[in-house]
Amino acid sequence: MGARRLVVVLVHLIGFSWLITKNALPSFALTIGKRGCQTECGNVSIPFPFGIGSTNNKCFLDDWFEIVCDNSTSSPTAYLKRTNLQVLNISLGDYYSYYSSSPPDVIQVRNPITFRNCKDKETRESLNLTGSPFVFSASENMFTAVSCGARALMSSSSLDDVEISAGCKSKCLQNKQGYMNCWKGVNCCQTTIPSYVIKTFSTTFETETGKTCIYAFVADQEWFSSMFNNTNTSAALHNMDYVPVTLEWKLNNYSKNQIFGTNLSVLKLEDLLWSKSIRCRGDYSISSENLTAALSVQGCYCYYGFEGNPYLLEGCQDVNECQIDNRRYCGGEETCVNTFGSYECRKPKVKIVLIEWDAIQKSMKTCSNIEESYEEVEYVRNEIIETWDVFTTIGSNASTSSGVAPSSDKLPLSV
Questions:
Q1: pLDDT at 234
Q2: Helices and strands in the chain, H and E counts
Q3: The Wall-associated receptor kinase galacturonan-binding domain covers which part of the protein (predicted)?
């Protein structure tokens, strides 16, 4: 008989598709505004605490955050109702912005350019944000003056009535076409604005010729850097009346009850303070007598692994990292499995079919005994055949010895 081979099989179970399906969130749009409130105007998204709608619906935190959407033109335009500032963009801070040098919560609006001695240009003053929750962002904006050999100075007072000033002076170089190309202090100058809480400022000018057209403004520095792609930067700016400026906003004067709802219970406040999905900065106090709580909020953000609006109850929603390519860190045969606020990289399961070695040895021994017994039987049979060959036939009906069949042979068989 042929030798038997024992095969041990390792079953490689690949696939966690059922796990992914089980943990994956359904696709839906992130909630950014209060229920029943308009959240878009043209190409501008309007997240709470900003809002469009009636006061009764509480679409916005207060009148500083009320947005009016002007639909009188082909492209709807958003305005801050109280300041009449055109809104270009509103951004809520996230986990990364709160731990970087960038301001977390910002709004970008149009800021008027201040002109002097410029033909067909009105003299406008910059924004006055006094009393509002908005301030000029020191990290996102630059003060810029454009002219040939001009000096410009911006002056402001901080909340502590401290005089704040910043200024710069440009060099003069005019090309053959008469355009003043602005580049690194030539025909224009730039400087950072002070890192204080600035809500308003005035601009003063000095020129070498006295009648030279000069203008200055505070603008978003990223936007201004893109202007250098234009060789005639000064000419392009001269045709503008407004530039984008970035304002920071904080909710220092608002309680968490005002933001998230009136009469917020202590239990609900503690749930928010220790929530896995949302983080807020500020000071809070809890009254056990009337079970109410107040929190002075500087700002809130969705924690890592969540996205949405941190100023709404349950506004931060879990991100399915397994569906975002730039966050997929699982490699090889590992499978990405989404979890609440995070993800896991799981290795494929391996199922091993084990057979006891003692049973294998016993089985092999049994097979060996069977073969040996078979050989012994054949040997005994050979002996019997030889004995049977020497018998002679007594008669046709005679019986042979026990176990030997009768034969009709007359003579013994030759061996």
A1: 66
A2: 6, 23
A3: 37-94
Rounded to 5 degrees, φ, ψ at 245 are -130, 145
What are the backbone dihedrals phi and psi of residue 97, each rounded to the nearest 5 degrees, phi first? -70, -30
Which residue bears the tokens 């024992």? 6
Higher pLDDT pick, 247 / 347: 247
Least confident of 160-164, 175-179, 218-222: 175-179
pLDDT 10s digits, 80-111: 999 999 999 999 988 777 777 677 899 999 99
What does the DSSP 8-state code read for residue 25?
A: P
- CB 342 within 8 Å of CB 305: yes
Tell me what the pLDDT averaged over the chain comes to: 73
Exposed e or buried b for every residue in 375-391, given b needs 16+ CB within 10 A?
eeeeeeeeeeeeeeeee
Helix (H) or strand (E) holding 78: strand 77-80
One DSSP character per residue, 326-349 reads GG----TT-EEEEETTEEEEEPPE
Q: What are phi and psi of 298, to 5 degrees?
A: -90, -35
